[in-house]
Every structure is written in structure tokens, then in C-alpha cells.
Design a protein that fits this description.
The chain contains twelve helices and 16 strands. The chain is of the alpha/beta class. The chain has one domain: Alkaline Phosphatase, subunit A, CATH 3.40.720. Strands 7-6-5-4-8-1-9-10-2-11 form a ten-stranded mixed beta sheet, sandwiched between helices. A four-stranded antiparallel beta sheet has the order 13-14-15-16, covered by helices on one side. The longest helix is centred in the middle third of the chain and has 23 residues.
Length: 539
């Protein structure tokens, strides 16, 4: 008996049914996005990554209900360049941000660079940034001028200004001065002249910031932003850049026995992420993609207040002095924890070995939102939505690691990854807990490590070995092609000029720029539910 033929209409219906069954992760409406960026967090600070870590039950649950990426990297090993790359999908040699901005910086992320927030807002999203910015705060470099409808947070790292309760740091820093220059303490590692400001949009609402309540206030503002966006009927993009785990640490005291200050702070961060997950779930499971990662590795010179590297200890560098974490191009400087959670779309309980980067967040979210990448420029990030959905394990073939302060000219590319191989044309060690540093060393031909069997970066391949000779040509080609691609691109140049007039200050008449609180006390806490907000504009 012959096979009955199907009409074109029946074929179409059957095709749609089969596609629906085969691809349950196809996005039918614009999803919400929450990107949580931790500060100075170590790969080993996540319990799911490192069994010795016990303080992250909420993050570990997030990993169990989502996908954990174990070969995920920041785009630089220090603050401003890493954040600029997240919001542009471009390395510092392209977007112009190669090192950190100062409290006196006039510039920031170049204005001709298009941010992720600008693309998503054009696509119909409500956009909010909460937390640390550090991409320029003066004039049009403020977050409200870079695509964010709402901003609540601090303009740079929270050790870049004094507070009344300074928290824990190495070395300890004094509180803000109260009574003129005689009370000021000069210390190279501490900012004592200007109080740390807290902004809501372009208004300074507290100066100095009360560090002990900052985590709670971030969660409260996140909840309000999400509720407003939900009420508006628009999808939202929330960029939550935490103060944790950067010093100074201000955990709820006293810490539980055996946890210490760092462990208590890590637990506070974990609880904050857990609360944000609850907010996302409250919108309807499956409506929101939550992506957690870090800006760079731990700040080793802070000793017991620095994070955990896990196995990525950079043993070759340690033998020669200095740290192999933050500010370096060793794995501990840029390999960071990363989790993606999206019920019904991102597979639960999956561990992905794919080589990925914070650079990939920009193009991936743009594609998921149904938007288009900005024209006339190159991108270093990839659309990794097939990896998110578990359809693929294909990520970067080549990943570039820019110098971040420990060796070589900042921003220059002198380390790269090709498959399991890591090549260094320059090495250097940042300041370690013991005060040592590792001087920059040039390598020609490059040092090459096989990370598949030497994750500690302890023993480079013998230059005379067959393995080295086999992989060197491919590394050399990849390196040359990458540099040529950047040189031919439409690149930007950041303005790093400084002027004391750019310092955010709500009261130029008072030492340290401290604001008078509603009850007349300097540095008093501000409760948005009790006190009327007094506008204090950034000068």
C-alpha cells in the first residue's frame, strides 16, 4: 500500500509541532535580564567550584538549578577595563578603557562606544544599574547618560573614599576627618580627603556611604526597579555590580565561628544573590535570565581579606615572587566563577567546560532580545546562546588576556589562550600578601602551558619538545591575526585626564565633602522611607 501524501498545510503544521518539541528554548518573547557582577571574587569562592568553600549555599543552589561555567574569564584583571568590556563586548584596545579611572577623572568609557544598556533600551527595555560604576562619573559619563534609565550606587570602588565606619582593610583605614586638616591622616593606601558618595541617578543622597547597610539597600532598590519595570509592562535589564568581595569588607558581625571576616562577607553576598533569585522567580519562572560572574580574580595583597583561587595558583610566577591573581594575566587573575539560571531554557545541573568570557554577555543578550549589534565596529565577544541552551560546547577558539598592571603596558595583549594552550609573551606578578612583586619578564619565544594537564601553570612546555614546536605556529598565527584585526578596527581612546573639580561632592564647605543629614548630624544614615530626600547634585 502506498504512503498517503500530505498537503502543504499539513506539512507546515507538522513542521511547527516538531520544531516546538525539538527546540523548547526558542525565545517567544523578550526575556528579562539580570547580570550580577561580583568584585574581586575568586574562582574558588564558589562552593560548587571548590569544596573547601562552605559559605555559598544560595549560589550553589543556583548552580544546581542552572549551568555552571568552569572555564569562564573576565576581559581584564582589573576593575574599569573589565566592566567596560562587559558593557561593550569589546576589549580595552578597542573601547579605549585600558586601566582604572580615578575620583578626579574627567573622562570615562568613550562616548562613541555603544553600551549594552543603550542597545536594550532602544529595543524596548527598562534599564537599571545598581552598584559600582567605575566607568566615569563626570558629565555625560554618568550611567544615566550611558543608557541606564535608573542608577543607584557608588561611582567607583568603595575604598576610593572615606566613610564613618571604614570596615576591614589591609592596612586598616581611618574614618572620615571631622574637624579640618589637623584631623586628616595621610596614608598611601587610604583615601582620607573625600567621603565616598552614594548616588540615586545624578543626585548624591548620602556622603559618606554607610557601608554596613549597602547590601540591603542594593536589594531594596533592585526590588523597586524590578517592580516598576514589571508594572510598566516592559522587559528589563538590571546590571547589579556588587561591592562584594572588594575591600573594605563590612560583614554583619560577629562572624560565625571559623568563618572569619572574609567568610562572613562571602555569606552576605551569597544571601544577596539568593534574594535576587527570589525576585526573578517571583516574576514567573522562565521569564528572566540571571547571569552571575566576577570582574577579576582576588586581590592577593589584602591577605586574609582576599578570595580563594581554587587550583589556579600560577605556580611559575609564585616561584619568582609576587601574586598571580588580580592585575595579572595568570589564570587566577581572570578565571572567574560564572553561573547562568533560566528555568526551562538553561539546562539545570549542567557543568560546561566551554571557553567563554564576560565579553560574550553583550552579544548574547542582544541576540536574545531580538536586537542588532551596533554597526561599524568589531566585537571580541560571541553570541553563546547555543551554549547557554545546552545545544553546543563551542566557544572561543582564541581568547586574549590584556595586561592589567602587573607586567607590560596596560591594555596591551601579551597573553592568549588557544584551545588548552596558554601563551605568555610577557609575565609579571602583582603585589602579594608578603609585599613581594614579580618583575615583568619578556618571553620570545613565548612561554606556553598546557592547561589540560597543568592547571596550576607550573611548568611551561620545553621549547625543544615536539608539543611546543607543533603548537607554536598556530599560536603565532592566532596572535598576529588578533592584533591585525584590532589595528584595523574602529577603535576608541578614553580620556584619562584629571581635575579635582570632577570629584563628586555634596558639600564643598565641609571637610571631606560630607552632607548634613536630615537631623543635622554629619554622615547620618538616610532612610528613603522615613526622611525626605534633599537633592544634592554632583558638581
Amino acid at each position: 500500500m502506498g504512503t498517503p501524501s500530505l498537503s502543504p498545510w499539513a506539512v507546515l503544521v507538522l513542521t511547527l509541532v516538531l520544531v516546538g518539541l525539538w527546540a523548547p528554548c526558542v525565545v517567544s518573547r523578550q526575556p528579562n535580564f539580570i547580570v550580577i557582577l561580583a568584585d574581586d571574587v575568586g574562582w574558588g569562592d564558589l562552593g560548587a567550584n571548590w569544596a573547601e568553600t562552605k559559605e555559598t549555599p544560595h549560589l550553589d543552589q543556583l548552580a544546581a538549578e542552572g549551568t555552571r561555567f568552569v572555564d569562564f574569564h573576565s576581559a581584564a584583571s582589573t576593575c574599569s577595563p573589565s566592566r567596560a568590556s562587559l558593557l561593550t563586548g569589546r576589549l580595552g584596545l578597542r573601547n579605549g578603557v585600558t586601566h582604572n579611572f580615578a575620583i578626579t577623572s574627567l573622562g570615562g568609557l568613550p562616548l562613541n562606544e555603544t553600551t549594552l544598556a543603550e542597545v536594550l533600551r532602544e529595543a524596548g527595555y527598562s534599564t537599571g544599574a545598581i552598584g559600582k560604576w567605575h566607568l566615569g562619573h563626570h558629565g555625560r559619563h554618568h550611567p544615566n547618560s550611558r543608557g541606564f534609565d535608573f542608577y543607584f550606587g557608588i561611582p567607583y570602588s568603595h575604598d576610593m573614599g572615606c566613610t564613618d565606619s571604614p570596615g576591614y582593610n589591609v592596612p586598616p583605614c581611618p574614618p572620615c576627618p571631622r574637624h579640618g586638616t589637623a584631623a586628616r591622616v595621610v596614608r598611601k593606601d587610604c583615601y582620607t580627603e573625600v567621603a565616598l558618595p552614594l548616588f540615586e541617578n545624578t543626585t548624591i543622597v548620602q556622603q559618606p556611604v554607610e557601608l554596613g547597610s549597602l547590601a540591603r539597600r542594593y536589594v531594596e532598590e533592585a526590588a523597586r526597579f524590578i517592580q516598576r519595570a514589571s508594572d510598566s509592562g516592559h522587559p528589563f535589564f538590571l546590571y547589579l555590580a556588587l561591592a562584594h568581595m572588594h575591600v573594605p569588607l563590612s560583614p554583619p558581625l560577629p562572624p560565625a565561628p571559623g568563618r572569619g571576616i572574609y567568610g562572613a562577607s562571602l555569606g552576605e553576598m551569597d544571601a544577596l544573590v539568593g534574594r535576587i533569585k527570589e525576585l526573578a522567580d517571583s516574576l514567573g519562572r522562565g521569564s528572566t535570565l540571571l547571569w552571575f560572574t566576577g570582574d577579576n580574580g582576588p586581590w592577593a595583597q589584602k591577605c586574609e581579606l582576599a578570595g580563594r583561587l581554587g587550583p589556579f595558583v600560577g605556580a611559575w610566577q609564585r616561584q619568582r615572587g609576587g601574586s598571580s591573581a588580580k592585575q595579572t594575566t595568570w589564570e587566577g587573575g581572570h578565571r572567574v566563577p560564572a553561573l547562568a539560571y533560566w528555568p526551562g531554557r538553561v539546562p539545570a545541573g549542567r557543568v560546561s567546560p566551554t571557553l567563554l568570557s564576560v565579553l560574550d554577555i553583550f552579544p548574547t543578550l542582544v541576540v536574545l532580545a531580538g536586537a542588532a549589534l551596533p554597526p561599524s565596529r568589531g566585537f571580541d565577544g560571541l553570541d553563546v546562546s547555543p551554549v547557554l541552551f545546552g545545544w553546543s560546547d563551542v566557544g572561543h577558539k582564541v581568547l586574549l588576556h590584556p595586561n592589567s598592571g602587573a607586567g607590560g603596558k596596560v591594555g596591551e595583549i601579551e597573553a592568549l589562550r588557544l584551545a588548552q594552550y596558554k601563551a605568555f609573551y610577557t609575565t609579571g606578578g602583582a603585589m602579594a600578601c608578603d609585599g613581594s612583586t614579580g618583575p615583568a619578564e619578556r618571553h620570545q619565544p613565548p612561554l606556553i602551558f598546557n592547561l589540560a594537564r597543568d592547571i596550576q601553570e607550573q611548568e611551561p612546555l620545553d621549547v625543544a619538545s615536539r608539543e611546543y614546536q607543533a603548537v607554536l605556529p598556530a599560536i603565532s598565527r592566532a596572535y598576529t591575526q588578533a592584533l591585525q584585526d584590532i589595528a584595523a578596527d574602529n577603535v576608541s581612546v578614553a580620556d584619562y585626564s584629571q581635575d579635582p573639580a570632577a570629584i563628586p561632592c555634596c558639600n564643598v564647605q565641609h571637610v571631606g565633602c560630607q552632607c548634613q543629614g536630615a537631623h543635622g548630624a554629619l554622615g547620618s544614615s538616610w532612610d528613603p522611607h522615613v526622611e525626605k530626600r534633599t537633592p544634592r547634585l554632583c558638581l
